[in-house]
Amino acid sequence: MSFLTIENLNAEVGPAPILRDVSLSVAAGEVRGLVGESGAGKSMIGKAVLGTLPSAIEISSGRIVLEGEDLQAMRPRDRRRVIGAKAALIPQDPLTALNPSRRVGPQITDRLVDILGWTRHDAQTRALELLDEVQIPEPERVMRAYPHELSGGMRQRILIASAFAAEPKLIIADEPTTALDVTVQKQILKLIKQMQARHGTALLFVTHDLGVVSKICQSLTVLYGGKVLEDTRIGDFFARPAHPYSAALLAATPKYTDPAASLTPVPEAVIDGVRAEIEAFDRMHGHV
Amino acid sequence: MSDTPIYDIENLHLSFPDMAHKPLLGPAPRIEILKGISLTIPRGDVVGIVGGSGSGKSTLGRAMIRLLEPDSGSIRFEGQDITHLGEDALRPLRRRFQMIFQDPMSSLNPRRTVGAIIAGPLRLQGFDRVSQRVDQALDHVGLPRAFRKRYPHELSGGQRQRVGIARAIATEPDFILADEIVSGLDVSSQAQVLNLLEQLVRELGLTLAFISHDLSVIRRLCRHTLVLHLGEVVEYRETAALFEAPQAAYTRELLDAIPLPDLKQVWA
Amino acid sequence: MADGRSQVKRRAGARLWLSATWLGLLVLGAVFAPLIAPQDPLAQDLFGARLPPFWEAGADAAFPLGSDSLGRDVLSRIIHGARIALGVALIAGTLTCLIGSGLGLIAGYFRGWPDMVISRLVDIWMAFPPVLFAILLIAVLGTGLSSIIIAIVVIDWTRFARVIRAEAMSQGAMDYVASAQVAGRKRFSILLAEILPNVLPTIVVLLTLEMGIAVIVEAILSFVNLSISTDQPTWGSMIAEGRLSIHQAWWVLVFPLVTLFLTVLSFSQLGEGLKDHFDPVLR
Fold this sequence. Notes:
The complex is a heterotrimer. By secondary structure, chain A is α/β, with parallel strands linked by helices. Chain A has one domain: 3-Layer(aba) Sandwich (Rossmann fold), CATH 3.40.50. Chain A is built from eleven helices and ten strands. The longest helix of chain A has 18 residues, at about 180-200. Chain A is globular. Chain B is α/β, with parallel strands linked by helices. Helix content of chain B is about 35%, strand content about 25%. Chain B contains ten helices and ten strands. In chain B, the strands form two sheets. Chain B has a six-stranded mixed β-sheet, sandwiched between helices. By secondary structure, chain C is an all-alpha fold. Chain C has a single domain (about 30-280), classed as MetI-like fold. Chain C has helices spanning about 15-30, 35, 75-110, 110-125, 130-140, 145-170, 175-180, 185-225, 235-245, 250-280. In chain C, helix 3 (about 75-110) packs parallel to helix 6 (about 145-170), helix 4 (about 110-125) crosses helix 6 and helix 6 packs antiparallel against helix 8. The model of chain C is unreliable at about 1-10 (pLDDT under 50). The chains are: A alpha/beta, B alpha/beta, C mainly alpha. The interface of B and C includes residues 91, 95, 97 and 110 of B.
């Protein structure tokens, strides 16, 4: 069953399209990667689902369906409630995502108490369980700590725990390891994968790093200029990328195991081809 | 002259005051960032400096070009001791060691045109034919000369980083420090900037220290690799040998943690 | 291909032009006051007292905004009052800005002991209640235009020093400052050539705000009769007088008040508008 389905989503800033007919779906227990270079609109899709798009960006058409409920058809209040109960975010920067002047514990339990109406005591117990599950030593002590007393990796573990706290159907991870060292990144990726599998959550993993994609995703959506270029299984992508841009992206990613292979920047011709595709799309939809 | 290494660094220590734990009265305790680092960089070498956050790699780089003053130990640049030189004594040397910064947006003054940015160090160092040299530098990094009139925010990330490179090579330095210069770029511009750097090293005979957390990039570019961990040298060897058979446990851990774009790599 | 970011632009035009027009009119009025003002602002005429503004019954066309309880023309007094208001705004604003920004830049960029000294000074300064400080200063210096200006400068330089220090500090941490140092630029020249241009938009905003504040402070001091001699028309003294006859002649109070309000508002909007206009990133 598909926990998240996006159908023909279009979004604009003023007259300029940001998302162009984006469609994708994430099934229960599936990890879908969302890759693209900066400005490709990959974070925008996550924000559109969570209802946190900047006010200048407007969704003009399309559907976002979260476990059978069409978010676009709802009143804003109901939408927020549904999103709050069914979806969660693992953010990019573990430093700014936690309020520096509050202890960690309440920042995990707030959501359970405020949105799901749990008692403080139940929420507390659940938070301790979760911290234990994300392998944080001495969870009681960490609950009382302030964010600055913890390392970057620890903070990201807390954010992961907090994302899984309310047993959401869908988690959106927006470049969750970009700010971390490679050794910590490895641990965090393994943790996210493990948690996701155990809880059967649908995970939409936004990243620009194809190396990371290969470690965690089962399926992949490649974006450029807010348009889906390729939607594929991970094995197919690495064996025979269908779109020339995907192939070029793969060729431009350095591999330390193969230093002799020359690094090919994405060729101009490929970029031009993709732009032509987008312009053709815009002409068809009346944005010129 | 050619036997003298560009850099000869011995037992370098550097610390910062820890303001978070400053007592009410008296000096703040110091956090030691570099704990006795020694290395030699011969002329014409390309050295990769790698390590996690808090390893001291950027601090070491900034001490080498004396944006920071070490506590103790010594830094010799072409035989001359520059460890504690004052800003006035350093100024004539500045032409000879340049730096390319991580974030091209913050390292290019947003209120200057590209032309003025590249001309800045040339003017300050008293070069003649500044305008021609700016054009040459732009040619070298593959940017059109018309870019002189543009402002940094009008350029893409990759183009900005080329401007940073053009500024660094314009004074024909002997040594360039590149601090995480591709980590903020998309893979396609990253590949372009790396290829450009390789080409410049070949053509201009630069000596380059390349700081990065990305071992894949280092392996491509650098002849030697220095692995730092918590302010100490873990390993400093020829790159090929280091990658073939890492000696230190930390190097191995670092290598294992790199996510390769390859489904065959399985993480233990 | 269109990138959405270029579309998100702030419209600075309208407020910049509206506020600049109003202030421009005021400046013209102040400079050519003797030529423009329909009446002598000091001429009293007890028979023509409390004439209503032109659209009401019993108005006199020679007194378009009416007259006060001594028969003096309100419009002429407002125009002449602009001389004092703008003079104070310009001189006090600029002096405050120069002193405060200068100290702020030095403290924020050089850090160390200059910062220690300047910051402590600011802390101590700001512990004084400003209104009391002003009244005390005027009491010592005596009333008069120069006293008002000195009072404003002495009290308000801390506003600039604090904000500009913080701004210089954050700009000083940027890599372009390090790169200027790598290029061999001298410290003081880095401050002027690299940091100042990037702090300038903030300085402009603060300066125009300060000019508005100077206008208000002058009005307040006139209101409590601590400004200049009573035979010079000022907006503050007009408001003070108008307050007494609010039930008989509302226009004596309302017109200077509206002028004051529009002027202060224009100053702050001018600052915001200029900042957007001259920012190369937003332009």
